[in-house]
Amino acid sequence: MENIENLKERFIAFFRQDRLLALAAMLLPVLFGGFFVFDTSTHRKIIYLFEALTITLLVRDRREVIAAIQEQKTFWVLLLAFLTYMTASVLWSMTDEHGRMFGKAKLLLLIALPMLASFYIFRKVPDVARWSVVSLGAVAAVTALYLLSAGDYYNKDVFVRLHGFGRAENPVQAGFLYALAFLATLSLKTQGRKELAIKLLVLTVCAATMVVANSRGALLALMATLSMYGLLKLNLSLKKMAMVGILAIVVLGSVLWVVLGQVEDTTFFQRADTGRFEVWQQGWGIFQDAPLLGHGLASKFHYTFTLPQNGMEATVGHPHSLYLSTLIQGGVIGLSLFLALFGYALWKSYLLHKTRNISWPLLFMVCGGVFGIFDFGGYVINLSTEWLAFWWPATLSAALINRGIPTGK
After folding, report:
1. Whole-model pTM above 0.85?
2. Structural domains in the chain (count)
3. Does residue 43 lie within any of the structural domains?
């Protein structure tokens, strides 16, 4: 964390030096914090503004941009291979809706362009990465304090799940976004007691908001990520890491069980698997109809399941699993390309953690990867939570891993 006056002075100097780069860079912290306050339409308008500014920036600095891409050629080849294949799959998608086909096909540009711009900005101004995660944690803390104080979540007889603002409008998204805010804050270094106190406050309110959101997938993903992070800090052998990791999950899970058990009906256990197994079985059957190429990114399926609370049927539009969704959309080829990109980006983020002590990209991707077992409809999507879970942390890792510029973390 950094003194506000120092931050202000550095930004003014940065703005005077290159106004176009500064204006584009300013929007990244707005986009990160905006997940907690902006609705989908407003949020995407900001990313379109970001794209408009950065097109000019990328054209202006094209020689430097090309040199930067060549330095991280493997990352960009894997990224473009995955995105190109998935958007090309629109051609064999099972749909006659031309608007939907166009909307899916343009995702190649809508994801690749912002990631290229972010990649270049992170390289030119590494401090923007820290400003972005500070913004994420700060806005999360403010909204969490309001939600916890204004909501009626403390009735012992009836548990009301938290619904947030912006992209955290439903309990599942709220749980995952506040988990990322927790991890972002945890990764920041502090100086002095005042900053430490602020950090502990943010961690506390984010954790409390997660519990009240009552998203089991998000809680499990956070526990798994924290266990991994602790093990990395201890520098243990692989065998000891596995033992300590299992122990940590058991202990944290037991504490959570006891806490939530104080409320008579949290639906934490009563809602069983919320139809996940039914949906996954249907999804697996759909995948088997086109196992190699998949059904295409623009194909649309409906999955029905039975609500455990009342026995009524409900329908969802995706199989609630990142990996199964990718299989259905892109087949074995699509999933293989994704896993290659994900594995490479994860390795880069691990190296960034080890060599530069920048941990949040690794934490975000691990948390998203675990959460993706139980949710997400695929990572090839316009600006959404998935960008925080993968696209931005992967891009930052590629941008900074070979750079000698200090980040001022």
Report:
1. yes
2. 1
3. yes
